[in-house]
Every structure is written in structure tokens, then in C-alpha cells.
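Pinned message: reference record for Acyl-CoA dehydrogenase
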Amino acid sequence: MPFEPLASDFYSYESLLDDRERAAIAELREWLEAEVRPVINGYWERAEFPTQFVKPLADLGVLSYAWDETRPFPNSAVFRGFVAMELARVDASIATFVGVQNGLVTGALSRCGSDEQRAEWIPKLASGELVGAFGLTEPLSGSDSAQGLRTTATRDGDEWVLTGAKRWIGNATFSDLTIIWAKDVEDGHVKGFIVPTSTPGYSATKIEGKISLRPVQNADITLDHVRVPESLRLQRADSFRDTASVLRLTRAEVAWAAVGTAIGAYEAAVRYAGERVQFGRTIGSHQLIQDLLVKCLGNITASIGMVVRVSELLDAGEQRDEHSALAKAYATSRMRETVAWAREAMGGNGIVLDHDAARFFADAEALYSYEGTREMNTLIVGRKITGTAAFV
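Predicted structure (C-alpha cells):
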């Protein structure tokens, strides 16, 4: 289908994409509008994940945009960012699923796996044959994962014994494998392991009662003396620095998803403003509503500019921790403002799913926190600015 630029891309950043990339975005946009948008509110309300979408996402190439078998980054980081934004513009939960599958799981394998591990696992993840999860966060360790990881790995001959617990692990209730990060009891360094979820001692329990990203199947994971062979240890993950290298790649794409979430709420508000009649005319003709919409668009436009640039730096091999940290902190903060203004423009109707803004409003809270809170990312940037770490 022909590519139609988004009205919400006010400065036409999509013009940076080449013809092939624009065609791929157009195809993805058509599928999202036809298949996902009409049903996603129901899945959100029921807190169910639409697993039937995994294969179409793979067929569209979305699950292999970041990786092509063992070769990293055949597509630009800018293009991958636009894909994350397009997904989140319709639903942040679908974007989160892809971010876990594509960025965290496949990214960990590509960054930290051996040639043999990449060749075995990445094609199966890209095709949707397997679903992955990424087990880093723990019940007592989130922002302090670099030092506070409590899950342990003990070498026993040709096997490793994993013991501990993980929390907030997306996809984990239906994943086929989970990348588990654990501290080696011998040297104290963090190592990564490919753990098939059928392994004895591994269990995942869905976290109930969420108000954000409800279709995402976050789980508590228990590891009760789980045994995995040395062949399933990520061969190039020898410290938390290697774990952090994966997060650095994905953090900027979370910022892109935050922009997409803001756009989704803003577009819903624009639609509503053109339909809702009060005082004898549509509310879009009222000055105060226009003020809210312009503030939304300003946040979106500024954020797109930032995430485009941070992805350009990644493509050039020049992106540093503080670059992705600033993008994530800024974009999610502006997203939080934007979804609130979009909901405000709808008055009472903004708190029901009928007009979509309520879903984006709630989902923004999770994006604001995961893959590094605003505060932690601020401290990463603050350390660069001042030369002094202020984490404790």
C-alpha cells in the first residue's frame, strides 16, 4: 500500500526513511489498523495477550528487523525506532512484546551468545517459532541490579545450578525460553543463561491486578535448583557490563515506544475533538482544547527529534549510555504529560476504553518505569555532566 505520512509527525521525520523502509512501515501500519486496533481494548480489559498476532508479526518481518540470523542490525536503528513507534501508536503492549522478543532476548543472544548459540536460537525467535523472555529484575532488585542481584549460579561439572527469583518478566507465562541473569557464586560476576521454560525447577506465575500494559503477561519466576548445561550459558556474558550492553541497545527503542504511546493518545484526542459537540460546535473549535492539542504535539515533535538523533548515533557507533538514558528519561516524561493532556481533552469520556486515550494513559505508567526509571536515567546523565556518581 502507498505510504501515508502521519499528521502527528509534524516535522516529517519519516522522510528520513528510504523507500523500502517506508513501504515496510506502510505494510505494518495497515495490518495494525485492520487487525489489532479493532480488538485490542478487549484484550486489555481481559488482561490477555493476543498470541495469534505472533506469527503475523513474524511474517511482516517485525521480529527479524533487529537481527538477521547471526548478523546484527541489517536495518538502521532509525528504522527500528520507527517500527517501535508505529507499534506503540496502536498498542504499547504489542510494542512491549516485540521489544522483549526482538531487543532483549534476541539482543542478548546476539551480543553475548556464541556463534553456535546465535545460529541455533535467533532464527527460531525471528520466525515466531519460539517466544522468549528476559529475566533480570528480581523481587528485591530492580534499579540496583548491577550490585543487588540475588539469583545465583553454581558450577557443578558440566552444568550450572540456578537458584533465585525474578519479577516483572514480560512474556514469561507463555515463553519457550527465558534469558536468566545470575551471579556466579565463585567469581561474583553476572552471567547469562538460556533456560528452556520446561526445565525442572522453573516456574512462572502471572502477576495479577496490573493497571498498565495489561495484555503483557508479566510473571514472577521461581528458580528452584534449575540445572542447565554449560552449552546454554551465554558464552560472551562475563559481567554486568555485558548485560548493560544489551540494555543500552534497547533503552532508546523504549524511548521510541514512549513517543508512539504519546502519539496514540494525541491522535485519539484529535479524533474526539472533531466529533464531540458541546455548546453547539465541536470541541476542537474551542481555544482551550486547541491549547491542549498543541502542547501534546509540541512534546511529540521534540521527542521524535531526540530519539531520531540518538538512533543516528547508534547507527554511527557513537551512542553512549548517557545518550540513550537522556532519550528514555525525556521521552517518557513528555509522554506522561501528553497522555494526561489527551485524556483531559476528552473530559469524563477519557477514562473509558471506548475512545482509546484511557488505555494509552494507563500504559504510559509502565513505560515511564521499565528499562530504567526516569530517576536512574537522570543519574546516568548527571554523572556524565558532573563527573560524579550520585546513585546512593
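Pinned by admin. Summary line: Residues 249 and 320 are 10 Å apart (CA to CA).
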